[in-house]
Design goal:
With 447 residues, this protein is an alpha+beta fold. 69% of the residues lie in helices and 10% in strands. The protein contains twelve helices and six strands. A hairpin with a 4-residue loop joins strand 4 and strand 5. Helix 2 (30-51) runs antiparallel to helix 10 (385-410) and helix 3 (80-89) runs parallel beside helix 8 (280-359). The longest helix is centred in the last third of the chain and has 80 residues, at 280-359.
């Protein structure tokens, strides 16, 4: 039970000894650490106040009127020619990073340098001195320009904003010019195709047995077929009536005797004599039956002729209808092609006019505008003297403290009784003082 306590006591003693050693090291090398730290602070101050050139920063604020989060998702174009023409004739909507990339592009920097040279007569190197940052959750872009001259920094920031607006206008106009040229070229091609399509349609319509002629012929034959079909049905009804009449007459005729007995006075025999004579009813019915049979035969012949005629006309009508349908399909195809090309030509003409109007508008100001011009900076942003000296103080303190521990670690000599006790683990019985001229002269140690 006593061993853990001993271990705890020993660990506390070691910790106490280590802290004492650290304090002793700081005390031993305190002059060096303090001198080195002060030297670093003085050096940083001299560099910040007398060596490093001041740097001024001018800020201008631009506002992007149209921007999107993802490139290509800002507009939903339609399908077909309308969608293609709309995508060509309208200006794209870019992301904020696209605008920032254009602001910091070498092309824009060259424009600013050229304008500065024209106004001041000497080139000013601004590469690496321009920074553009998008303000979070806004359509604002903060443009920062740094320079050793505050007037140059402010003027460069303002010129950069102006040149960017002009740059946007020029690029937009170039794109609109290409779009107008493209649309006009496509319209010329479409008009030529439209002319050829109209000529093909006219040539097709002028051919013999065209759709109009076939349509009239089909209508006429349809009416004839309907007329003959009606006559055929009427004749068929007549046949049924005649057949019924014939059957009735045949039945009546079969039930009627062809002759009848007639009583006559015979002068020679002076008596009544029975004689047979033709039955007039039978003869009448026979005559009617003969007439009806003749009519029935005529109607049968007529029905047979009408049936053949109707079948032939239906066959011709079907062939005519097939020809008419085929030619109508071809004609409608040509007409649809003409209508499509007319619509395409009108669309291209309209979009070319709209694009031409858009070309004349100052699109730079409509896309990007200067919200706040750069003001003349009063105080430099670099060097930050207080910050540099504070950093030098911290770095000097750290470096020379580490140097002190390194020197203490490399020093393996014994100088004090504590060193003897720590290194050799032997008790110190006494200390022989070092004699100096002062102590030797006044008998300090009993001499």
């Amino acid at each position: 039970m006593s061993e853990p306590g001993r271990l705890n006591n020993s660990s506390e003693e070691e910790l106490e000894i280590d802290l004492r050693q650290l304090i002793q090291v700081f005390k031993k090398w305190s002059r060096m650490i303090l001198a080195g730290t002060i030297l670093c602070v003085i050096t940083a101050g001299l560099l910040s106040f007398f060596v490093l050139n001041p740097v001024y920063e001018a800020d201008s604020l631009l506002m992007v009127n149209k921007a999107t989060e993802k490139l290509g998702s800002s507009q939903t174009q339609g399908e077909g020619l309308e969608g293609v023409v709309s995508s060509v004739s309208t200006m794209p909507v870019w992301t904020m990073n696209t605008y920032i990339g254009q602001i910091t592009s070498p092309t824009l920097k060259d424009r600013v340098i050229k304008r500065m040279e024209e106004e001041h007569g000497s080139g000013i190197e601004i590469f690496g001195n321009i920074q553009a940052v998008a303000v979070k959750d806004t359509n604002l872009i903060e443009v920062k320009v740094t320079s050793g001259d505050p007037y140059v920094a402010a003027e460069m920031a303002n010129i950069l904003a102006q040149e960017y607006v002009e740059f946007m206008t020029e690029k937009n106009q170039e794109q609109m010019s290409r779009s107008v040229s493209f649309l006009e070229t496509q319209k010329e091609k479409t008009d030529e195709e439209l002319k050829q399509a109209i000529e093909a349609l006219q040539e097709y319509e002028s051919k013999p047995r065209g759709v109009a002629v076939l349509d009239l012929e089909f209508t006429s034959k349809s009416q004839d077929v309907m007329s003959f079909t009606s006559r055929l049905k009427s004749s068929q009804v007549d046949i049924q009536q005649l057949s019924s009449g014939v059957q009735e007459l045949e039945s009546g005729l079969a039930a009627t005797s062809p002759t009848i007995a007639v009583k006559k006075w015979d002068q020679f025999s002076n008596a009544v004599v029975l004689s047979e004579e033709s039955n007039p009813v039978y003869e009448s019915m026979a005559a009617q039956l003969s007439e009806r049979r003749t009519q029935l035969a005529e109607k049968l012949g007529e029905v047979q002729g009408l049936s053949l005629l109707v079948d032939s006309m239906n066959s011709d009508l079907n062939a005519l209808q097939a020809e008419l349908v085929q030619k109508k399909v071809e004609q409608e195809h040509l007409q649809r092609e003409v209508e499509r090309l007319k619509q395409n030509s009108e669309t291209l003409a309209q979009k070319a006019t709209e694009t031409q109007i858009a070309k004349s508008i100052d699109l730079g100001d409509t896309s990007v505008s200067v919200v706040s011009a750069a003001a003349l900076p009063e105080n430099p942003v670099k060097p930050n003297k207080k910050l540099n000296m504070a950093i030098a103080f911290v770095l000097g303190l750290m470096i020379f403290s580490l140097l002190a521990f390194l020197l203490e670690y490399l020093d393996n000599t014994i100088k004090t009784p504590d060193d003897v006790m720590r290194e050799m683990e032997l008790p110190v019985l006494g200390v022989i003082p070092k004699l100096s001229r002062k102590t030797r002269g006044n008998g300090y140690y009993g001499g």
